[in-house]
Amino acid sequence: MHLETEKPETPPIKLTSPTFVGREMDADTTVGATNFLEKSNVPLPPELPKSPEQLQQLDAMRDALAEFGKDLGIDLTQRLPSNEKIHFINPKVMDQYREDQGMPKTIAGHTRFDNELIVSTEYGPAVTAVTTSHEMVHSVAHFTHQPKVVESGAARLEIARSGYHVHKTGALRFINETVTEAMSREIMKDYWPRFPELKELSKGHLFVVDEQLPLMEAVVNEVAEKSGKQSNEIWHDLYRGALTGDMTPLVRLSSHLTHDQFKTLTHSTETLGGAQEINELAQKLKLSHYVMQDVAPPK
Ligand SMILES: [Zn+2]
Fold it and tell me: Is position 106 within any domain?
């Protein structure tokens, strides 16, 4: 007898809130993780006030992100960044902040070690929306911290891993950034249009070019061809790993790439590279699915 049973629904993986806030402490203090859960002394830059419209948009962005997580089988509701965690920064202040933090001029957004989101408004609403979405994905992704002893002998809390990115060595940064951007674009494309507040902003991903993503898309397409899986399946597997901290999606990915390909990808730091750097990286990786990008002539 064949008994028709309903497939039991897998309960979603519930991710807890990473409310880590760091402070400097003496190196000889016994370092327990809870010691760090105190006030940060890394000042936040002064931010722009949020308009009622922006507050509604941020609410909808959180809802969209939670729906996206739910569809992946992950409960992100405890991780969603509150309005107080999201800081819109004007161009002048952003320039100063980048200088203070030693960041390149091309950085439009940044998720700090204390999970505060810095979003520059200097490139207009479309880029601001794309940046906010990207940083929100970073902020709900896997996060671990480690103490770093600084010159004065004090120890400071710093990021050990965010998503796949191992901060100390820079390993997996390219993969993490492109997987983050892919998630962000899928959310903007498929989830934002469900919210009237975000309909217009959801078009942002159409106008804002990301030079890095085509390379990772070519990698995923190559792995799809070799594994007989759908590209979507591979992306979703990669998304889950970045959100939960599980590295096995990368192990699965690497099993369909040559040792040299995966090594090059792992150590690639071309996250700030333009089309030319990405074209060169693609050639090095011998990716059959990659379409060369136009390189803008030097100004
Ligand atoms: Zn990023």
Answer: yes
pLDDT < 70: residue spans in the chain: 1-8, 16-42, 149-156, 270-272, 298-299
Distance of CA 276 from the midpoint of ligand 1 (Å): 20
CA of 284 to the centre of ligand 1 (A): 23
How many angstroms separate the alpha carbon of residue 131 from the centre of ligand 1? 9
Residue 15 within a domain: no
The number of residues in the chain equals 299
Measure 171 CA to ligand 1 centroid, in angstroms. 14
Residue 18 pLDDT: 52
Residue type at 26 in one-letter notation: D
Beta bridge partners of 86: 117
- Residue 293, in any domain of the structure: no
Å from CA of 28 to ligand 1 middle: 34
| 187 is a domain residue | yes
**How much is the pLDDT for 113?**
80
Rounded distance from Cα 167 to ligand 1 centre (Å): 12
Beta strand 109-111 with 74-75: parallel, antiparallel or unpaired? unpaired
* Ligand 1 centroid from CA 176, angstroms: 8
51-89 pLDDT, tens digit per residue, is 999 999 999 999 999 999 999 999 999 999 999 999 999
CA of 11 to the centre of ligand 1 (A): 29
Q: What pLDDT does residue 29 have? A: 38
- What is the distance in A from the centroid of ligand 1 to the CA of 104? 13
Give the pLDDT of residue 1.
Answer: 45
Check residue 92 and give its pLDDT: 94
Q: How far, in Å, from the CA of 27 to the mean position of ligand 1?
A: 30
Q: What residues make up the domain containing 205?
A: 46-285
- Please report the pLDDT score of residue 42 as a whole number: 65
| Distance from residue 9's CA to the centre of ligand 1 (Å) | 33
- Give the chain's domain count: 1
